[in-house]
Amino acid sequence: MKSSKEILVHPVNIPVCRVRFNWLPRPVCGSGEEPGRHGRALTAQRRLLTLPVPLILTAFPHITGGFRDMELREFFSEDVVNLDLGGESKDEILKELIRLLGLDEKSEGILYKMLKRRENLGSTGIGKGIAIPHCRSLVVNRLRVAFGRKPEGVDFKAIDEQPVYNIFLIVAPPLEVSNQYLPVLGKIAQFSKDSDVVSRLEQIEKPDEFLALLEQKGT
Fold first, then answer.
1. Spatial distance between the Cα atoms of 114 and 137, rounded to a whole number of angstroms
2. Residue at 129 is within a domain
3. pLDDT range class, residue 97, cuts 50, 70, 90
4. Quick one: pLDDT band at residue 70, thresholds 50, 70, 90?
5. How many domains does the chain have?
6. What's the chain's average pLDDT?
7. Domain contains 83
8. What CATH number is associated with residue 204?
9. What mean pLDDT is predicted for residues 87-114?
10. 8 within domain boundaries
C-alpha cells in the first residue's frame, strides 16, 4: 500500500496533517453504498484518515488556536450526557454513547461499524482516563457529540494502558462546510489536558454540572 503525507489548509488557515491512502477497498461512507451516489470526492481512493489526536496536537498545537472563540458548551446538551454508563466493554460503551444521539437502528449500526474501524486503527484513549472515539459518517448531517462516564472504568486500550472513565463521542459528516470536526476534537483533547478537569469530572453528579464545567473550562 502506497501512502503520501499532505498538508491541507482550511479556509481559516489551519493546517491539518493527514495521510492519503491511494488504495482502500471500501467506500468512505462505510454503509455498503456505492460511493458514486455521494460524489466522486468520496470514492475509496480519496479516503483520508486523520492522525491520532495526541499527534495532531503535538505537530500542530495551533489547531485550536484559530478557534479560541469556540466554546465546547455550545455543542452539548443534557440529553447527550450519561454519567452512569452500564457497558462492561469498549464495544458496549460505544453502543451506549451512540444511542444518546437518537439515530434510527440502521444508522446506529452503521455508525458503530465506523467507530470500530477507527478504533482498530488505534485506540482513541488518550490517557488520564479519557477517550475520544470519533469518525466521519453519512448517518449525520452535522457535527454530533455525546459524553459518557463509566465510574468503574473500562479497558479502552488507552495509550497509558490505564482504564478509561470519561468518554467523549464525536461524529461528523464526510463533507463539512463549517470545518468544526478537527477543531472540536482538538478542543476536547485540550480540555481533557487541564489538570483540574479529570478530578472535576469524577465529582459531577448531574448533566447540568457537566455543562457548567464545559462552560468554565472548555473555552
1. 7
2. yes
3. very high
4. confident
5. 1
6. 77
7. yes
8. 3.40.930.10
9. 97
10. no
Containing structural domain, residue 146:
53-58+71-217
pTM of the model: 0.72
State how far the alpha carbon of 163 is from the alpha carbons of 19, 59, 98, 122, 167, in Å: 29, 26, 20, 16, 11
Please tell me the distance from the alpha carbon of residue 119 to that of residue 115, in angstroms, as a whole number. Answer: 6
Type of residue at 28: V
Q: Which of 126-135, 194-203, 206-215 has the lowest mean pLDDT?
A: 194-203
Alpha helices in the chain (DSSP H): 53-59, 90-99, 105-121, 181-193, 197-203, 207-217
Using CA of residue 137, residue 72, residue 196, residue 207, what is the dihedral sign?
A: negative
Phi-psi region of 154 (alpha: psi -120 to 50; beta: other; left: phi over 0): beta
pLDDT digits (tens, 9 = 90+) for 2-44: 443 333 333 333 333 333 333 333 334 444 444 444 444 443 3
Strands (DSSP E) along the chain, which ranges? 3-9, 15-21, 48-50, 81-82, 125-127, 130-131, 134-136, 144-154, 164-172
Sheet containing 3-9: order of strands:
3-9, 15-21, 48-50
Whether 44 is covered by a domain: the verdict is no
